[in-house]
Amino acid sequence: MVKHVMVLVPHQDDEVCLMGEYLDRHLYKDDVLIKLVYLTNGDYITAAATRKAEALEAVQLFGILEKDVTFLGYPDTPFESDNPYTDNRLKAITLSIEQVILRFTPYIIFCTDSDFHPDHRALSLCFNRAMDSILKKAEGYRPIVFKGFSYSTAFYGKKDYSRINNPPATIPTPERLDNPSLNWNARVRLKNPGAVNHVPLWNNKIYQALLKHKSQCGLQYYQSIINGDQVFFKERTDNLLFSSSISELKVSSGIKQYLYDFSTGSLYHIMDCGNTDAPYNCIWKPDKHDLSPTISICFKHPQTVAYISIHGNPNLHKQMVAGEVVINRNQTIPFQLLNEYGKETIVHIHNQEVYSIYITLQQPCSGIGELGVYKNDDNTSLFLPIMPLVSKSNYFHEKLINYLEWLYIRISWVNFRLHRKINFLIKRIRKV
Questions:
Q1: Are the CB atoms for 234 and 380 separated by under 8 Å?
Q2: With contact defined as beta carbons under 8 Å apart, do 150 and 9 qualify?
Q3: 368-396: per-residue pLDDT in tens?
Q4: Is the pLDDT of residue 280 over 90?
Q5: Ordered DSSP codes for 21-51
Q6: How many CB atoms lie within 10 A of CB 267?
Q7: What pLDDT is attached to residue 390?
Q8: Rounded distance, CA 194 to CA 134, Å?
């Protein structure tokens, strides 16, 4: 039976930034196929047909065929635009993503997270909504989900490429990522198989793919994009709150669905890019008159529970949420402070048999972005953390390769500039 690995990105070239050489079909088993999905046509400046042709040429380098590429066809959005993401468009995008996921039922999904570009934010938001719907309707389907950044850790990352000892991906402010609820120290690191093994640029598939995206001049960002690793954040889909094992879930006030909607919160205004203090919605908040906010969970049958996961309000530095967790009405576990900016706080249950969970909070309560109950600890055995690579090199050999790489880059850059000038002239002629 063929297994699918799905990659969802907003624009043509984001696949290279997000996945790097892990797009390579040859890294997977024969029974695994990569399904690549683009949200937009990338047509804000360059024609959609051009972006599509460039993308298909680029992904062919990794062994991905045209039949395995899906273009959802939504328009590319500029930063300076008025908000095109109306409720109707977001609903349409969510439905498109849900349909393409259920069509292929991939066992692993990679998706772009909330970079500061509005299209990236829209994809992340609608993907979360689509997964919320899928997990609540299709209980037998629980894919492995990884989200990552196309900008922060790649396109606009540190320009530190080195062919011998290529460093891992870095980020300017690890304390608060573009998605503040993520913890940089909890990232999953995939060793880049090509960028750290003495591969000259002309043999590096990331560099080759950037050459194919001529209209985007992605070549100038190769030093940021080619890292020693690819960074992702795992989003668990096995939250018991999505399962039929729950007989009852009640809250004393507020909208309980926000507790388990596969999202730690979303920006009120999707175009509010780069504003780290922008408010978030889709967060469970008790009414201010609710003096003793309570969440009660009852199971149909006792469940073995390893831990409870709590994400607070991602907009707040200090999560002043005092409260307690009561297990089976006889064991009390108090907590005083949730981690800042909505980062995960774990309450360990230590694999007990649990039939009821009561969470009581004190006012004022800043809210909970996501609540999870898990039967086992997360063990991402599929991917192992990489170790720093230290290589010895022959001085004269490296000097020669470095010079040839420099010459290759200059020639490539000339071709880029020539291509852009020709496109500019064609557009001017068409207008005349």
A1: yes
A2: yes
A3: 999 999 998 875 544 444 434 344 445 45
A4: no
A5: GGG-GGGS-TTEEEEEEEEE--TTTS-HHHH
A6: 20
A7: 40
A8: 35
Statement: residue 164 has pLDDT above 90 = no
The token duo for 299 is 């199971």
Task: Give the β-pairing of 294-311 and 344-361.
Answer: antiparallel
Instruction: Output the 3-class SS for 103-172.
Output: HHCCCEEEEECCCCCHHHHHHHHHHHHHHHHHHHHCCCCCCEEEEECCHHHHHCCCCCCCCCCCCCCCCC
- Enumerate the β-bridge partners of residue 261: none
From 239, 281, 284, 246, select the one nearest 262 (Cα to Cα).
239
Q: What angle do CA 68, 72, 75 make, to 5 degrees?
A: 140
Cβ-based neighbour number of residue 193 at 10 Å: 15
Specify the 3-state DSSP secondary structure of 426: helix
Residue type, 57: E
List b or e across 199-210, with b for residues whose CB sees 16 or more CB atoms inside 10 angstroms.
bebeebbbbbbb
Domains of the chain by start residue, with CATH? 3-236 (3.40.50.10320), 247-374 (2.60.120.260)
